[in-house]
Amino acid sequence: MRNINKMQASVMGAGKQLRPHVKSHKCSALARVQREAGAVGLCVAKLSEAQSLIDNDLDNILITGPVAGHGKMELLAELVEKSPSLMATVDHRVSIDRLDTLLAARNTAMDVLLDIDVGLGRTGVRCEHAYELADYIDRCTSLRLRGIQAYAGQVQHIVSFDERKQASRASLQGAVDVFTRVRKRVPGCTIFSASGTGTFNIDTDIEEITELQTGSYVLMDAEYLHVQSAPDAPGFEEFAPALKLLTSVVSANQTGFVTVDAGLKALYQHGAVPKVVGPSGFDLVYDWFGDEYGKVSAQNGSAVPPLNSVLEIVVSHCDPTVNLFDEFNLVRGDEVVGTWPIDLRGCCR
Q1: How many separate helices (H) and strands (E) can be counted in the chain?
Q2: Burial zone of 38 (CB within 10 Å; 0-12 exposed, 13-18 middle, 19+ buried)
Q3: Using N-to-C axis directions, what is the helix angle for 93-105 and 127-138, rounded to 10°?
Q4: pTM of this prediction?
Q5: What pLDDT does 173 receive?
Q6: Overall average pLDDT of the 181-203 stretch
Q7: DSSP conformation letters of 245-288
Q8: What are phi and psi of 181, to 5 degrees?
Q9: Which helix (H) or strand (E) holds 328?
């Protein structure tokens, strides 16, 4: 709860709303805790994630990824009838026309955000084309333009706080200009949804931003351990690594390293190397050793842990690693006090 409460207090203290991204933990029980802590709503990346949250009686959901493909638009229109507060992002006339037609046929309407490309190039419309598309949405029968989305994912893991701040400001300035201009023409355009864990305490200084889409903060991972959360910080000190993976030493016949039972199928291989943080008394480094296994080596004169030892690891990247498991074990001290199903696991549609 410490990470949840700290982010909520920080964002609200800056006069913004928090809309945490469920794609990080894929757990409806945890999403409910975030809402109860004060979040204005929730973000999801995929339509199927939204469907699962709605089935669990959660609302005020924003789908941050574009919805396209056979059957998906039809399902989106169906979900709007079930959960009228559901919002989606749009960035192309073809999708806008299709969604508007489907909603009109059901005699219903929905709120949408115009997705702005602020340099990542993954989704969104470029700023210079955003005005025309905003006007196009505003003329639709069954779509209401409620705001814009601008996610600068390319800056979230820049190590230097000052460099990350400069990059985020530069990336978002075009979206700020779009929002300022569009909301003068479209009175209902009041939401500017942006940011991530890496820039949460940077982007709150941008007056026009109304809500933050932070996700990783609730779990944290090895990638963020190296990112400065303040100009003089040695790493990301704002939030503690709450997600740990336990793995056992299954072979100890070599010199200088042991084999553990967590490999590519348990730890996503991307970005930072997973960090071995337990047990105490060892100086160990992890490396992948195949699909099923990991290689844990001693360094700086440390011994290696004996056979059957249980090691504690901060994972490389929380989002895709979580998607490999069925449940979270809730731990207080050394005691497991409960479990939460990772019930959005596999929701990739």
Answers
A1: 10, 17
A2: middle
A3: 20
A4: 0.96
A5: 98
A6: 98
A7: EEEEEEE--SSSEEEES--TTTS--SSSPPEEEESTT--EEEEE
A8: -75, -45
A9: strand 327-332
Which residue type occupies 286? Answer: Y
Stated as kind and residue range, the H or E segment containing 148 is: strand 143-150
Bridge partners, 276 (sequence order): 313
What is the structure's pLDDT at 286? 98
- Banded model confidence at residue 235, pLDDT cuts 50, 70, 90: confident
Length of the chain: 349
Bridge-based pairing of strands 143-150 and 110-117 is: parallel
**CB atoms inside a 10 Å sphere around CB 205:** 11
SS3 per residue for 123-146: CCEEHHHHHHHHHHHHCCCCEEEE
Task: Return d(Cα 187, Cα 291) in angstroms, integer.
Answer: 54
The predicted structure's pLDDT at residue 76 = 98
Q: Identify the structural domains of the chain with CATH numbers, from first to last.
A: 2-220 (3.20.20.10), 244-314 (2.40.37.20)
Task: Provide the pLDDT for residue 270.
Answer: 82
Which pLDDT tens digit goes with each residue over 293-317?
999 999 999 999 999 999 999 999 9
Q: How far apart are CA 282 and CA 285, in angstroms?
A: 10
Could you count the other beta carbons within 10 Å of the beta carbon of residue 337? 9
